[in-house]
Write a structure and sequence with these properties.
With about 425 residues, the protein is α+β, with helices and mostly antiparallel strands. The chain has 3 domains: about 10-55 and about 75-130 and about 360-405; about 135-220 and about 350-355, no CATH class; about 220-345, Elongation Factor Tu (Ef-tu), domain 3 (Beta Barrel), CATH 2.40.30. Helix content is about 20%, strand content about 30%. The protein contains 7 helices and 28 strands. The chain has helices at about 10-25, 95-100, 105-130, 145-160, 170-180, 190-195, 240; strands at about 30-35, 45-50, 80-85, 85-90, 135, 165-170, 200-205, 210, 220, 230, 245-255, 260, 265-275, 285, 290, 290-300, 300, 310-315, 330, 340, 345-350, 350-355, 360-365, 375-380, 380-390, 395-405, 405-410, 415-420. The strands form 7 sheets. Strands 10, 11, 13, 16, 18, 19 and 20 form a 7-stranded antiparallel sheet that branches. β14 (about 285) and β15 form a beta hairpin. α5 (about 170-180) runs antiparallel to α6 (about 190-195). The protein is elongated, with a radius of gyration of 25 Å. It starts with 8 loop residues before the first helix and ends with a strand.
Length: about 425
């Protein structure tokens, strides 16, 4: 009698697929994850709102008397999670049948698993590049010293960010760092071993967990140069206006006619200094203030007057009503100088540094497909569906694996781009 497949094939596939999928994650392993169970339905559209955490402000008194003091006011804010496209992989049924019968299912599923992870993490990396407000190093300069990596932890700690900190580094930069690790290992090859065996630069260096990632994205700088670039009009800076997006709309002037700024480029505002997010004191590095930076998420082309309005991720908030949410010392105002942190026309592939609270990766819990052998598994923030299907017209049987991701930025000041220092 010929061998036949048993029932519940989709469940068997997921039981084999999931462990390897989780083990091979790099970027997705380091961000906040959740299954959006019951949150998204046919009426929610392409996005859903997730609640942002509240912040408070402490007062200092000699005797504990709070007369005349203002209590921290609660104000609700949300972060928008955008639903992406399905990530789907088809597997020929005859291959699947043979794999199950010969106990080779892992071998058949590995390419599908690799493809889904690469697609997911490439999109996640691109999202992180566009939405992180922080900037370190000189764009285009290779990361070749451990001080470049350690500075990412220093910056986040100075900002008052708590929790695990990560650096996702280009494999070529990782090679340079691995070559230099011999000086750190004190005669042991332990740090070097982890660099190559686990795609991990070292367990922790300068408070930062470093990983190699081949999914990092890139962007090409526009044609604009920053010789005379200034803010054209004072932007809105209140928390109540910016709380749901943490994005600012900034009108720029002084560009050449037709000059462009592209998505992913970073801007610096030397006259506006970053605040420590807890005690609200101005950051200082080597006796100099740390300027506010932001990343272009909606670029464009300068008009005939050399004006261009952009939307940036990272909000320079100064709010007398809700001072606990201030992000900078001194608001951006008309006439402020703006520096473009890029050379016109150059393509950049930045490494990333971030805290786990920077972005959220969600997956929509997909319904089982009626009429088929269809199963769904939810595990550690991922919802993956496997469905055995067939087409009576083409006489083809197949299995499909589905993942529907969503992406959300909780706080753009918990992540950013970094390069080496000249």
């Amino acid at each position: 009698m010929a061998n036949t497949l048993s029932k519940n094939v989709s469940q068997k596939v997921l039981e084999k697929f999931l462990p390897g999928f989780m083990d091979d994650l790099v970027l997705a392993e380091t961000v906040d994850r959740q299954v959006l169970e019951g949150i998204i339905n046919p009426t929610t559209g392409s996005s859903v709102q997730l609640k942002r955490p509240h912040q408070y402000r402490s007062e200092r008194t000699a005797d504990g008397d709070m007369t005349g003091k203002t209590a921290s006011q609660l104000i609700s804010a949300t972060a928008t999670a955008s639903i992406s496209d399905y990530i789907t992989v088809f597997i020929n049924w005859s291959q699947l049948e043979q794999a199950i019968e010969l106990n080779q299912l892992d071998e058949i599923l590995k390419p599908a698993r690799d493809e889904m992870i690469t697609t997911l993490e490439s999109e996640l990396a691109s999202y992180m590049i566009k939405h992180g407000a922080l900037s370190l190093g000189s764009p285009g300069t290779a990361i070749s010293a451990w001080g470049d990596v350690a500075s990412t932890g220093s910056y986040q700690k100075d900002l008052g960010i708590k929790g695990e900190m990560y650096a996702a580094i280009d494999p070529w930069a990782a090679q340079d760092l691995a070559d230099s690790q011999s000086g750190l290992a004190s005669g042991s090859n332990g740090l070097v071993d982890t660099a190559w065996k686990e795609a991990q630069i070292s367990r922790k260096f300068g408070g930062v967990m470093g990983y190699m990632s081949n999914s990092l994205g890139s962007y090409t700088a526009g044609t604009a140069v920053d010789t005379t670039l200034t803010v054209d009009s004072t932007p809105i800076a209140t928390y109540s206006a910016l709380k749901d997006s943490y994005q600012m709309t900034i009108a720029l002037t002084g560009l050449a006619v037709g000059a462009t700024l592209n998505v992913g480029q970073q801007l610096s505002f030397p006259g506006t200094l970053m605040l420590q997010q807890q005690n609200k004191t101005a950051l200082s590095r080597r006796s100099a203030g740390v300027p506010f930076t932001a990343t272009v998420i909606t670029g464009g082309t300068a008009d005939g007057s050399g004006d261009l309005t952009v939307v940036v991720s990272g909000a320079a908030i100064v709010d007398a009503t809700y001072p606990q949410y201030d992000t900078v010392q001194g608001a951006i105002t008309a006439g402020d100088i703006v520096e473009i942190l890029a050379t016109a026309g150059v393509t950049y592939k930045p490494s990333l540094f971030y805290n786990k609270g920077f972005v959220g990766l969600g997956t929509v819990e997909l319904p089982k497909l009626n009429g088929w052998d269809s199963s769904v598994v939810n595990h550690k923030g991922f919802s993956i569906r496997a469905t055995q299907s067939s087409d009576p017209i083409t006489n083809v049987q197949a299995l499909r694996l589905d993942l529907l991701p969503t992406f959300c930025v909780f706080n753009p000041f918990m992540g950013g781009q970094f390069f080496g220092n000249p």
